[in-house]
Amino acid sequence: MRRHCFFAFLAATLFAQDPAPQKSNTSENLRGVSVVSSKVAWASGTHGTYLRTTDGGNSWRPAQVPGAEALDFRDVEAFDGTLAYLLAAGPGEQSRIYKTTDAGKTWTLQFTNQNPKGFFDCMAFWDRDHGIAVGDPVPAQQQAGKDAALQLDFELITTEDGGKTWKPIPIDSLRPAVEGEGAFAASGTCIAVEGKSNVWFATGGKVARVFHSADRGHTWSVADTPIIHGPDSAGAFSIAFRDPKNGVIAGGDYKHPEQDGSNLAVTSDGGRTWKLSMLTPQAYFSAVAFDRKHHRILAVGASLTIEIRKERGRQVSGQNLNALSISRDGHALAVGPKGLIIDMTTNSRQK
């Protein structure tokens, strides 16, 4: 398929030296990060671990959520130094949502997935009280006929009261999933919200699609994308929107992280159509985000992190990174295995 021109070529650029990691004080695999400001950020990972800094990363304080030591926190959504949500991804009851309002002194278990075939992947919040989470497709109901296939529907839950209640979105408002389609819990960024009511989530597997709702999940549309797909390990892993019209999806095949291919695509019509970027070389990207202050896009992955600014792209790291978050004031952090935390803010200048 011909790649449409959105980003210029990334051939023959100067590779920047890998930025130095911050001291995280943990060796856990970090899978989620939420940057609130240049001072406040949270991260999350394996064995029920979360971390918090209130001094710009000079000191990180790791801890475990009591009773969650066996869980893998793939997503964290924070609003200040005291209020944060954690999403644990896993089969059945391992998919949970916790909340703290006192900087982690206490945690409230708000949601536990009761479907043994369910698996929640990511969540996003319009504000501190209104949020949405998406889970992989589960069988809906047996269709007529002995040999009829089960209809598969993505699981979506929403809250309007700060997580006191999480309610399922009626399946009749959502387009059915394709057999072999799912979302990815690689970085907690397979779903994105914008404004007061827009929400998108990206999928992979047999197809790579983007679902969109302009009314907080009451009605949905779906669009095919040109992102690589087919194997269970391939598809769109991450999605971000700068405004109601302009968005980006990133992914690839995590079993072949250095494989160049159709791993980045953009939209300028709110997700109705998607065009591949011409950026090359590409690789598997697990997370992508807009930096509104510095007018750039960052995408991180297992072997390549790139910065895209105007019509130029460059590599800013070759480290193995899982997740990425950028605050409104342009502070960017990425996290990875063995407690790795990288400050990407220092790489905002073009070389």
Q: How would you describe this protein?
A:
With 351 residues, the chain is mainly beta. It is globular, with a radius of gyration of 19 Å. A hairpin with a 5-residue loop joins strand 9 and strand 10. It contains no helices and 29 strands. The two termini are 32 Å apart. It has a single domain, classed as YVTN repeat-like/Quinoprotein amine dehydrogenase (Methylamine Dehydrogenase, Chain H).
Give a quick rundown of the structure:
The chain is mostly beta strands. The protein has strands at residues 30-35, 41-45, 49-53, 61-64, 73-78, 84-88, 96-100, 108-112, 120-125, 131-139, 152-159, 167-168, 181-182, 191-194, 198-202, 204-205, 209-213, 221-224, 234-241, 247-253, 264-267, 275-276, 287-291, 296-300, 305-309, 312-317, 323-326, 332-335, 341-343.
CATH topology annotation: Methylamine Dehydrogenase, Chain H
Mean pLDDT: 91
Strand content: 35-45%
The helix count comes to: 0
Reading off the top of the CATH hierarchy, the class is best stated as Mainly Beta
Could you state the CATH homologous superfamily?
A: YVTN repeat-like/Quinoprotein amine dehydrogenase
- Could you say which structural class the secondary elements and strand pairing correspond to? mainly beta
Strands of the widest sheet, in order across it, are 1-2-3-4
Rounded to the nearest angstrom, the radius of gyration is 19 Å
H and E order: EEEEEEEEEEEEEEEEEEEEEEEEEEEEE
Q: Report the biggest beta sheet as strand number plus sense, adding barrel if it closes.
A: 4 strands, antiparallel
Count of DSSP E strands?
29
